[in-house]
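step: validate -> pass
step: tokenize input -> pass
step: predict -> running
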Amino acid sequence: MINYCMITKYKWGALIPTYMIQWLLKSVLYVMGLVYVVIDNFVTYPTDKILGMDIDEDLQKLDRKQLCTFLELKYGLSDGEFWSLPSTSKIRLGCQLGLLSSKKNDN
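step: predict -> pass
step: emit ->
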């Protein structure tokens, strides 16, 4: 539920409801994300070794969307659910899944 009482006051005296600022920021990030995905299609990244870790040959062949689909299938997420997350949320979820995986391996 949106709390309409939360107001942010800026130096220049403007009073703007916090939910409007969050909406604006998320909208700008969404548009920038679309531009990033388009530009990213033309950039080549290392696929065989990342930070000294060998990458599975099957994973090397997958594009960005296919990698997201792979994670959705592996962790039982809905179709398009991982793909539609903002980048920081993807990283955070990946870290959490890594923690859960390492805890399983420790037991």
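step: describe -> The first strand starts at residue 7 and ends at 9.
step: cleanup -> pass
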